Design the sequence.
């Protein structure tokens, strides 16, 4: 992993606020999954070095932050999986990420 952070954010769906005080994780890592065209398959650890590039992961687990600490809370997106269960978390992955250096003044 190159960088990662955890924080508290909001969740909007189609521009409408549907969740506040949600626990969020963002991570920038070496590519550990195949590209989208190959289905984002996780590769074995001995094959990671053969992949080129970086990926950015945005993860929203089923956790809300309260004054009493983190609490389990379903993702309020109303998305139902093919097996009839509610979607347990959201993960968005961006391919072809990179780090750009900027000259300081």
Sequence:
């Amino acid at each position: 992993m190159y960088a990662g952070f955890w924080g508290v954010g909001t969740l909007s769906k189609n521009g409408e606020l549907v969740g506040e005080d949600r626990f969020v994780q963002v991570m920038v890592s070496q590519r550990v999954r195949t590209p989208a065209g190959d289905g984002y398959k996780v590769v074995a650890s001995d094959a990671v070095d053969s992949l080129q590039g970086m990926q950015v992961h945005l993860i929203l687990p089923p956790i809300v932050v309260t004054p009493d600490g983190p609490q389990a809370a379903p993702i309020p997106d109303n998305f139902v999986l093919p097996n009839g269960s509610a979607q347990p978390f959201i993960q968005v992955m961006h391919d072809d990420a990179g780090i750009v250096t900027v000259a300081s003044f």
Q: What stands out?
A: Residues 3-97 form one domain. The chain has a mean pLDDT of 86.
